[in-house]
Amino acid sequence: MSAMKWWGWGTEGVAFDHTDKPEFAPFISEHLGLDLSGTPAPAVAFEALDLPSARLDDGLRRALEAAVGAPHVSVDALERVTHARGKSIRDIYRHRTGDIGRVPDVVVHPGAESEVEAVLRAALDADAVVIPFGGGTSISGSLEPSAQETRTIVSVDLGRLNRVLAVDAPSRLARIEAGAYGPDLERQLNDQGWTLGHFPDSFTHSTLGGWIATRSSGMQSDRYGDMADLTRAVRVVTPAGVLATRPVPSQSTGPSVREMVLGSEGRLGIITEATVQVHRVPEQRRILGYLFASFTDGLAAMQEIAASEAAPSVTRISDAAETRFSFATRKASSPVDRVKSKALTAFLERRRGFDTDTMCLSFIGFEGSPSHVAEQRKAVGRIVGRHRGVCVGAGPGVLYDQKKFDTPYIRDFLLDHGALGDVSETSAPWSLLPAVYADATAAARRAFADVGVRGYVMCHLSHSYHGGACLYFTFAFRPSGARSPMDEYDVIKAAVQQAFVDAGATLSHHHAVGVEHAQWLEQDISAPAVGMLRSLFAGVDPGGNLNPGKIV
Amino acid sequence: MSAMKWWGWGTEGVAFDHTDKPEFAPFISEHLGLDLSGTPAPAVAFEALDLPSARLDDGLRRALEAAVGAPHVSVDALERVTHARGKSIRDIYRHRTGDIGRVPDVVVHPGAESEVEAVLRAALDADAVVIPFGGGTSISGSLEPSAQETRTIVSVDLGRLNRVLAVDAPSRLARIEAGAYGPDLERQLNDQGWTLGHFPDSFTHSTLGGWIATRSSGMQSDRYGDMADLTRAVRVVTPAGVLATRPVPSQSTGPSVREMVLGSEGRLGIITEATVQVHRVPEQRRILGYLFASFTDGLAAMQEIAASEAAPSVTRISDAAETRFSFATRKASSPVDRVKSKALTAFLERRRGFDTDTMCLSFIGFEGSPSHVAEQRKAVGRIVGRHRGVCVGAGPGVLYDQKKFDTPYIRDFLLDHGALGDVSETSAPWSLLPAVYADATAAARRAFADVGVRGYVMCHLSHSYHGGACLYFTFAFRPSGARSPMDEYDVIKAAVQQAFVDAGATLSHHHAVGVEHAQWLEQDISAPAVGMLRSLFAGVDPGGNLNPGKIV
Q1: Which of A134, A157, A180 delimits the end of a domain?
Q2: What's the CA gap between B238 and A528, in Å, rounded?
Q3: Is residue A335 within 8 Å of residue A395, measured between CB atoms?
Q4: Domain-ending residue, one of A404, A420, A455
Q5: pLDDT at A173
């Protein structure tokens, strides 16, 4: 993954392009007041960065070289900068404007768990800071060293630990090294007829270990489960040695250590391997589009589906604002067209009483045998119908499926043109979701007004559970120019996050805590719970060498 | 629950009776060499117990009385003895022989969370030990004070906190106080059309808080989930105040504090309330009996069912030894008769090639709408057929359902006649189950031989998961008389537990660690993981006042 951009999302040379999407520029102009015909402002030149020299004494360097081999110890400038942060809007904004902060002093690439152990020993012996690095896609600040850190900072890139080690076919469990990227591990599993079924937005650039360290969710987690469900056993290099739990399906062995490693963001050690649930690649896979007259109708339908005997693989419904945005990103001729064809519009408006400007687009996925898929579609169809929903076929779903990993590139495109976009997601019981939605969108709009900017906020329900769902908000704005864009961003982001916890929702459903969300942790899980986390981290890592400052 | 026996399982006046089960006495005679026509030896008289006087100074007594009200602070002898231990074979054996150990000095019955807080403050101020008490059914020694404990021991009985506080119908979540007993909370939920769906063997005498503190599983957990799945939020009185997590369906807020409270056995504080998933009482509920020619066939069928699109509520298969035991406990005329009718026996032997002495009895449950149940039955039936299984109808299932909570009484009956029976359960990946089964039964038989006793070991698969299953072993023996029965028990129990961890299985699937299983914890979850638990407990409870000595 050496081609990862140091200044933005994804692979060098790949970018969002709106020239084949005729409605995009007018939409952005209308809602953000942004003229996309202007000249984009790229990131500063890499050569212009003011990179501090590496604080790496000879003793530690030799120890790290002994641990992983000299070719796998790097103080290369690009490596250090690429490993300095994740991909939050704050990370990208600062990087592209030349503010690279306290970058790691050295990047090591261990090729075996024993090498990870040796790296950790060397780092602890030298009282260095250790920050594990998977795909580097954190958007919560989980990777950033503290600006005040005076100790040597060692970034441990797990990328060489990228193999599917074994598949236990009868148990449908796979042992996979933590540094395996999404596409790489899926390919290795697919070759044997299996799938992990974990497809977060970051899929193409994130790793198994990163998913575990942040409690990731994917687009088909309704069916396959979140990473906490998928991860049956972990191996973690800790200061006390290799922690290794067993891949048993359920156990009563005190507080769950597996569930302590999940979400630990490097504070307990370096995850090297996990045993995860895998499934046979499904015979059939369908994602169908549906339209609802309102977000309220769509939420009610999803709630009823969750309470029914149907078990779809994807349950997603966008609010009206996000639906309008989706339509604005369609290509000149695309399957989404059918959704806004004149005939359908007429049908929806005249026969169903839809206002097609405020209708809501939904995707519901089905997987399994053809008969199972047919059964589920029928059951879901009945529920959708009860909530005034209309099926618009497979076209939009195919399109959604194809472009689902492209969305993060839009953020860089907007930055090129001077606008900031970000996401905040949460989960809450079904009974609270309407209020969480209303409060968070209102909070964002109030914040836009408070800082005096043009902004847009939109939302979708991304995952359904027995007792509630995840709401995923995206907001974008054009900074006023009156003060620092990041100050304005902070006001808006904080307003949304505060609305979450005030409404009884959580600070994050699957983006972790890092430093971005840490200020809301106590309001979410309560002060005694935060105290427990502190006890745990302090006990395992008394010197504060393991990714200090994250979570608490 | 004042009528709970101080010397054995369950309610005073209720006992196992074999006089209507003609095959029981011959079976016990054959396999344990025990003559049930002899005079039973009851527990010692309560009055004969040598109860140490309560170590309770006036200051603490007044503080506890101020906390919960004087009528709810008890130093009554029967209360103290009843709260001294759980219901492990060791607990019961010692209690009934008059060895009551270091009993709690005082039992308090708080009626509100604020009273629990006041109790904990008073106890910590006095440097007393606090042991939370739910139903007192632990069979892992989670309740027993250390024999060497010199501090005052306060048993906190949660029994007055027994209400279903609220049901959030759209979210299918119920807030329930931790001291609610199984039948009590099910009745309160059923009155509103809901069920928790958690039915452990101990159901009639155990509480919600106890289930959470030990990571309990129930008979229908295949469908409803274990307590770790069912418990969406917890409230716990800790030394740092009330820990309260939110009932959100999934969250990414660092290591899961909810999953630290689950299985914590009082080491982190006193659980006062939980928000749990509830379901509508199913329209239809069926438990069908099946017969397999061998345990191997049955295991393979369960594995295939777990990998299929069917989702039964119960998957249970007994080995040949347990099947024989089941037949030996049938009443003179019972639905199980059909299973051993001459016509069926002839069919199984001649047409299916069964050896009816080694065949295995299975129960598979189905719940939901009639069409869903029919669909599932059909899907399961096809799989069962592929593994030479034969459906024997609903009769045995009805019987199983009726008598499922009576089993623990058999242990007291055997004790009355001088034999010891106990259970050990584990879980493992599907691929390891045949070896775990073979190793654990062989280890038990070897241990019987080593100590020179007649013994019987039997097993069933009790829960299926994606990647594995729970195996539940029951063993019984008649002590040799050459040395202490408990010494012989220790050899046998240790042999089974060691076989579990040596074979890659876990020390316990749902009976917790307590003191009985603590010696295998490091072999199961690894030394660094045990270190993490120590850090957690020490951080939360630096004085070691919270149920010290349990788990680690």
Answers
A1: A157
A2: 7
A3: yes
A4: A404
A5: 98
Structure tokens at B157: 């009985």
User: How far apart are alpha carbons B357 and B320 in whole angstroms?
Assistant: 7
Mean pLDDT for all residues in chain A: 95
pLDDT at A354 over 70: yes
Active site residues of B: 472
Structure tokens of A262?
A: 């999940």
Give the chain A residue nearest B236 (alpha carbons).
A528
Q: How many domains does chain B have?
A: 4
Which residues make Cβ contacts (< 8 Å) with residue B233, sequence separation at least 6?
B244, B245, B246, B247, B248, B258, B274, B275
Please report residues of A whose CB lies closer than 8 A to that of B502.
none
DSSP 8-state assignment for residue B348? I
CA distance B265 to B131: 9
- Among chain B residues, CA nearest to A503: B246
> CA angle, A28 as apex, A23 and A29 as ends, to 5°?
100
Q: Would the pTM count as exceeding 0.95?
A: yes
3-state helix, strand, coil in chain B (%, to 5): 40, 20, 40
pLDDT per position as a tens digit, B3-19: 789 999 999 899 999 99
CA B268: distance to chain centroid?
A: 21
Percentage of chain B beyond pLDDT 70 is: 98
Is residue B429 within a helix (H) or strand (E), and if so which, with residue range? strand B420-429
pLDDT for B352: 85
**Cβ proximity of A541 and A268 under 8 Å:** yes
Confirm whether B509 is domain-assigned: no
Exposed, middle or buried by CB within 10 Å (0-12, 13-18, 19+), for A50? exposed
Instruction: Specify the range with the lowest mean pLDDT, choosing from A23-27, A306-310, B351-355, B384-388.
Output: B351-355
Residue for token pair 């030349």:
A98
Site of tokens 């979140």 = A226
A510 touches chain B (CB under 8 A): yes
pLDDT, one tens digit per residue, over A423-461 is 999 999 999 999 999 999 999 999 999 999 999 999 999
Task: Quote the minimal CA–CA distance from A212 to chain B in Å.
Answer: 10
B207: tokens are 């509480």
**Annotated catalytic residue within A181, A400, A456, A472:** A472
| Nearest CB neighbour to A467, from listed B244, B249, B526 | B249
Chain B CB contacts of A514 under 8 Å are none
Range of B177's domain? 164-280
Other Cβ atoms closer than 10 A to B542: 10
Query: Which strands form A468-478's sheet, in the order they lie side by side?
Result: A390-393, A284-292, A360-368, A314-318, A454-464, A468-478, A420-429
Closest by CA to A312, choosing from A259, A268, A362, A262, is A362
Tens digit of each residue's pLDDT (9 = 90 or more) over B80-113: 999 999 999 999 999 999 999 999 999 999 999 9
Q: How confident is the model at residue A2 (pLDDT cuts 50, 70, 90)?
A: very low
Nearby residues of B369 by Cβ (< 8 Å), 6 or more positions away: A309, B283, B284
Residues A286 and A279: their CA atoms lie apart, in Å, by 17
CATH number of the domain enclosing B357? 3.40.462.40
Alpha-carbon span B537 to B550, nearest angstrom = 10
**Residue B298 located in a structural domain:** yes
Q: Which of A251, A275, A430, A472 to mutate to test the interface with B (most CBs of B within 10 A)?
A: A251
